[in-house]
Design brief:
Number of helices: 5
Structural class: mainly alpha
Distance between the termini: 81 Å
């Protein structure tokens, strides 16, 4: 097995453990019948959203907005997470349904591979002699030394 396969297996195992833990907490908080109804409700919400996304997919030739396809893909993934049984996936799916979370994810995807900090201006700044001064180690400006009396400049 490669390291990547092990990592995927570990991630799926942790996700399954998280789903079981989330179900146990919800079950303890609201009871069995309410937990089952809540799970069915989020699945229905995901299925209804898939129906709406299919309608948008059929109309895709009529509009071309910047990032609209990626936004639609994130919405479809959120619907898929809602359809999956489990409350941890429901929380992730509902979070991805929020426009602010989706835009943050979109920005993260778009900026992947780019340096996080771009310099705002030129790398070298030229200053005239009167525009800067030497500082001491404590950060204070150096004082100009007075010339002794009788010394010529």
């Amino acid at each position: 097995m490669t390291d990547r396969t092990k990592l995927i297996g570990l991630a799926l195992g942790l996700w399954l453990a998280l789903e079981i833990l989330a179900f146990a907490f919800v079950l303890r908080a609201i009871g069995l019948l309410a937990a089952i109804l809540l799970g069915l409700g989020t699945t229905a919400l995901g299925l209804a959203d898939v129906k709406g996304l299919l309608a948008v997919w059929r109309e895709r030739g009529k509009w071309r907005a910047e990032g609209a396809m990626l936004d639609g893909a994130i919405q479809a993934f959120a619907s898929f997470l809602l359809i999956l049984p489990g409350f941890a996936s429901d929380v992730a799916g509902l979070a991805l349904k929020s426009p602010s979370v989706r835009s943050a994810v979109l920005n993260r995807i778009r900026n992947r591979g780019k340096s996080p900090h771009k310099p705002a201006g030129p790398q070298t700044i030229d200053l005239a002699p009167h525009e800067w001064k030497h500082l001491t180690k404590s950060g204070r400006p150096k004082r100009k030394r007075k010339k002794p009396d009788g010394a010529q400049a």
